[in-house]
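Researcher: We're teaching a course module on how sequence relates to structure. For the next exercise, students receive a sequence and then see the predicted structure as C-alpha cells, so they can try to spot secondary structure elements on their own. Here is the exercise chain.
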Amino acid sequence: MNTINTSDAPAAHAHAPNPLAIIWLILTGVVFCSTALIAPLARAQEAAASRDKIETFPIGNVLGWGMAFDGSNLWVTDVLSATITKLRASDGAIQGVFPDGGESYAAAFDGANIWVTNHNADTLTKLRASDGAILATFSTRDYPRGVLFDGTSIWLTNWGDGTIENRSAVTKLDPINGAVLGTFYLDGAPNNMVFDGANIWVVQASVYDGNTVTELRASDLGYLGTFSSGAYSSDIDFDGANIWISNEFNPSVTKLRASDGHQLGRFRVGPNAYGMCYGAGYIWVASSLDLTVQKMRLDGRVIHTYSVGEAASHGLFDGTNVWFAGGGAVTKITPIR
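Model: And here is the predicted structure for the students to work with:
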C-alpha cells in the first residue's frame, strides 16, 4: 500500500500568499490601468476640442440674449430693441428681424411658433415661426423672464406677481390660447428652466432665501423639492441624468442628480459664468467678463477654452452645434466628434 509521509510534506500555509497583498496588487493594477487609460483619453479630447470649428455671425442686435431653435433657424432676442432676429443655422444668413412686443428676453419653440418674454412690458408674445407674424400677445405677471415648452405646455417665470413685493411665480400655460393652467409661487428671482422629461426645474437667484433650484412636477405643478445651487444662479440644463446650473457671482457650475437633487459637485469656471448648455456630451459655459466659452466634461474637467469675442449670454445646442448669443453677434461652435 502506498502511503504519503506527511512529515516530509511542506506545511500548507508556509508559502500561502497574503490575501491583503493580493487585494492591494489588484487595486493598484486597477488604478494604474485606469490612470493609463484616462490620461490619453483626456489628451485626445483636448486635442479634438482645439479643432472644433468656431464661427461668428453679426445679427445687428444691440444686446442679443435669449435663443430658440425651430429645427432649421435660430431665433435671437434683443433686450434693448424689442425685436427678435431669425437666422439660418446652416450658414448664419439672416432671414428676418421681427418686432416682438417689448424688451424681449427669453424665447422658446413649440413646434410651430416662437414664444418670447417681454421683461418690462409684462407680456408674452407668440410669433408664427414660418414668417415671424405676431399671432397673440398675452399679459403676464410682473417681469416675465424665462420661457419653456415641455412638449405639451408653455412655462413662464416671473420676477413678481403684481400684488406681493418680492413674490415671484412659475406659470403653466396652454400653448393654443395662452390660458393659465396653474401657478406656483416662489420667493426670489426665478431665471431659466429645464424639463427632464417629467419635471420642471427652475433656477432662481435670491437675496431672501439663497440661490436655489426648485423641482416641480410638470403634470400638476406639485412641489418636489428645493436644492442649493450657487451664487446668483442663472442658467440651467439637463444632460439626461443630471441637472447643471451656472453660478454667475461665484463662477462655477453645480451638478445635481436629477433623481433626488443630491449635489454631485461644483466646478470652477471662468468669471461671470452666465450662459450654459449641454450638448454633444459636454457642458458649455460662457464667461461674459473674459469673452470665452469653456468646454467641460461631465466629471467637471475643462478641456478647452474658446475666445468668442462677445460677452456671451445664453447657450443653446441645436443637435449638432453649440450657440451663444451676446452683443451684436452669435457664436456657433461645431464640435469635432
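Model: If you want an answer key for the exercise: The two ends are 74 Å apart (CA to CA). The CA atoms of residues 110 and 151 lie 7 Å apart.
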